[in-house]
Amino acid sequence: MRAVVLREVGGPDKLVLSPNTPNPVPAADEVLVRVRASAVCGRDLIDRRGGFPLMKLPTILGHEFAGELEAVGDEAARAGFAPGDRVANLHRPACGECPRCVGGEELLCERAHQSFGHTVDGAYAELVVAHHRALVKIPAPVPFEDASTLMCTAGVAYQALASRARLVAGETVVITGASGGVGTAAIQVARHLGARVVAVTGSPAKAAALAELGAHEVLVSPDGRFEDDVKTRLGGPVDVALELTGSATFGSALKSLRRGGRLVVVGNIDQAKVSIKLGALILWSHTIAGSASCTRQDLERVLDLAASGALRAVIDRKLPLRYAAEAHALLEARAVFGRVVLIP
């Protein structure tokens, strides 16, 4: 098969197309997926630079994909999968047996060691092997390209806003990094939950598109210091902040909150440290939480929203698989609105 292989960490040039990569073979509890679309995420850039210390090398990146099943192991077949099924993936397969899984906390699974692009090969390839518990069937109306993006954008946003932030109708949320894949999905998810949405971007060129996507207010803040603008524009602070950038905007996101407000961190683009004044945290009774990935139920929910037309996958462009390095360069230059999708 053709695959884009990362043999050593570094710049985008380290992503090299290999035309004769051996086809993977699924085990009894796995399936073989013919990849029809593989989305490129900001995490892929971090992985490529060596930000995940346990990543195997060489590896094939790509933890967001959609495709058709070509081969199905016996255990996967008993779980209800068959050749021809259209599927999208979760980040990793929960075991379903550990105390966390039994307690309904599958995202905290103690045995979920498989991670696409980290410990097992991902989907910058024509074929990928996946455990059946890492897959969800795609509704017929949803194209492969859209489905490939929804887990790590809308699914992640739904988990962060509905479960972690407990955002409810009538509240106001500020979303940093709003023009990225998670940001464009989070605007729509927050609107679906009945919230008022303030989108923050560093690019004036992206402001109009964010408003068209459903943001009630759009703040352009190249320096990441927007808390005064939030309060001026809205007449006061917000209930929830969704932090999708990291250190560059974390301080302003926290300062934008009302007393008792909630901040949920999903993005960490530059991986720099942040400082927090504990006295202010105590005085203002703020809650700061991390949020990673999404549950099977989250992904099924956003796929259904997409199938009904209530949610739109925002795709900046589609590129052939051999242009994976160019896709990474576009993301690093912040020249993308939504997701870039690779087509094998």
UniProtKB/TrEMBL annotation:
| Family, as annotated | Belongs to the zinc-containing alcohol dehydrogenase family.
Cofactor dependency: Zn(2+)
- Gene Ontology cellular component? cytoplasm
- List the PROSITE patterns: ADH_ZINC
* Keyword Transmembrane helix included in the entry's annotation: no
Q: Which residues form the signal peptide?
A: none
* A GO term, aspect molecular function: alcohol dehydrogenase (NAD+) activity
Q: Which EC numbers characterise this protein's activity in its record?
A: 1.1.1.1
Report if keyword Cell membrane is assigned: no
User: What name does this protein carry?
Assistant: alcohol dehydrogenase
Looking at the record, the residues that make up the Enoyl reductase (ER) domain are 10-342
The organism encoding this protein is Polyangium fumosum
- Which of UniProt's keywords are assigned here? Metal-binding, Oxidoreductase, Zinc
What InterPro entries does the record tag this protein with?
ADH-like_C, ADH-like_N, ADH_Zn_CS, ER, GroES-like_sf, NAD(P)-bd_dom_sf
Q: Which Pfam families match?
A: ADH_N, ADH_zinc_N
